[in-house]
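Subject: design request, 186 residues
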């Protein structure tokens, strides 16, 4: 059997709550298909399908993540990913450390031994807030692109290996293993 997996930095609930406070102030209509708060994460490496026989080794090998310190990040604004000039993803952008970039690079390198290709593009950490099926219009897009808000600072203390199962109602995430990061020195 195969599992669809990815590695993600966990976002504290307090930061997600503050983020959605900003989102709902910008667009109070909550009946849009926003990502559920418990699914908000920062993908460090999307692996895709991998043979379940490899999972025990991967779980063990990723212990190296615990060598890294907790990560300080800042949510600074919103943006969109477009496909054929249509907005498809609304995301929150982040300021991040060089160390986070090196974690993502190390994960990229690690998974090549399973035939997973390295990413050809620059690491662009973001939090996916909404997957857009129908174009919400320029007003919606501009409201988010041009928004100004107090940056949301937070610290992430763990990274997880996550299984993603695709269902007609959307994907379901199951944490396979959590790796705690080292505390920051005061």
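Subject: RE: design request

Done. Sequence follows.
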């Amino acid at each position: 059997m195969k599992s669809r997996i990815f590695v993600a930095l966990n976002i504290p609930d307090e930061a997600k709550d503050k983020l959605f406070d900003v989102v709902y102030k910008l667009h109070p209509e909550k009946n849009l298909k926003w990502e559920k708060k418990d699914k908000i994460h920062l993908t460090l490496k999307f692996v895709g399908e991998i043979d379940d026989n490899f999972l025990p080794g991967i779980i063990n090998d990723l212990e190296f993540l615990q060598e890294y310190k907790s990560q300080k990040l800042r949510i600074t604004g919103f943006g969109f990913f477009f496909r054929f000039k249509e907005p498809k993803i609304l995301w929150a952008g982040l300021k991040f450390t060089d160390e986070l970039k090196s974690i993502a690079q190390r994960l990229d390198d690690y998974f090549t031994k399973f035939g997973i290709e390295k990413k050809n593009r620059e690491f662009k950490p973001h939090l996916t807030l909404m997957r857009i099926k129908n174009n919400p219009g320029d007003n919606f897009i501009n409201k988010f692109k041009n928004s100004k808000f107090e940056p949301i600072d937070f610290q992430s203390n763990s990274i997880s290996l996550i299984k993603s199962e695709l269902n007609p109602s959307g994907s379901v995430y199951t944490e396979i293993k959590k790796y705690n990061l080292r505390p920051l020195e005061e």
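The longest helix spans residues 13-26.
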